[in-house]
Every structure is written in structure tokens, then in C-alpha cells.
Design goal:
single chain, mainly beta, four-stranded antiparallel beta sheet, 0% helix
Length: 115
């Protein structure tokens, strides 16, 4: 299994930036893909960005061009750089990893963007 701990959320004005971090521990070698999701109260959790073992990345249309997902293998950490933030980006952000027979979620970190 893999344990995930997110950090880096907070309150920022529209147009500002934040960088989220997700520290990984456990059976990291078994991870096939990693990603970031977000959830607003009363709505379903939605996918924002993902990075595969190969390093290829994908983004939801709503964040494309503003968010960048990356990883630092030496630090066992997944990142989400968020630029030009908008009020509609306000949500709890979760990191997620998948392996051949498991999936793990972090506890989430709150991002609030004021207008």
C-alpha cells in the first residue's frame, strides 16, 4: 500500500498561485499512475491532472494551461503547480495513486480562491 499526505493549500486571491505537494510513502515502486482530483461540497470529485509512470501528463480542460503536474522521484513527492487561479478552482484537492491492484487517496487540502 501507499500512504499519501497533501500540503500546500490555502487562501489566495484570483490570479494568484499555489503549489500543492503530496508526499508518498510505502510501496512506491508499485505505482503506475498519479493524479490530482478536486471536490466541491455537494458535487462529485473531479479529475484535474495526471502523470503516468512514463512521465506523460494529461489535464482536464478546465485547468489546462494553468496547472502543471510534476513529480520528484528523489523526494517521493507529487506536485501540482496552480497559476492564474480562479474562484471556481476553490475546492478540496486530493492526490491519488493507482497500482495494478490498489488505489490510494490522500486526506485532501483546501484551496480557496477569493475574487
Amino acid at each position: 500500500q501507499v500512504q499519501l499526505v497533501e500540503s500546500g493549500g490555502g487562501l489566495v486571491q484570483a490570479g494568484g498561485s499555489l503549489r500543492l505537494s503530496c508526499r508518498l510513502s510505502g510501496s512506491i515502486f508499485s505505482i503506475n499512475g498519479m493524479g490530482w482530483y478536486r471536490q466541491v461540497p455537494g458535487k462529485q470529485r473531479e479529475w484535474a491532472a495526471s502523470i503516468e509512470r512514463s512521465g506523460s501528463t494529461n489535464y482536464a480542460d478546465s485547468v489546462k494551461g494553468r496547472f502543471t503536474i510534476s513529480r520528484d522521484n528523489a523526494k517521493n513527492t507529487l506536485y501540482l503547480q496552480m497559476n492564474n487561479l480562479k474562484p471556481e478552482d476553490t475546492a478540496v484537492y486530493f492526490c491519488h495513486v493507482v497500482g495494478s491492484n490498489f488505489g490510494s487517496w490522500g486526506q485532501g487540502t483546501q484551496v480557496t480562491v477569493s475574487s
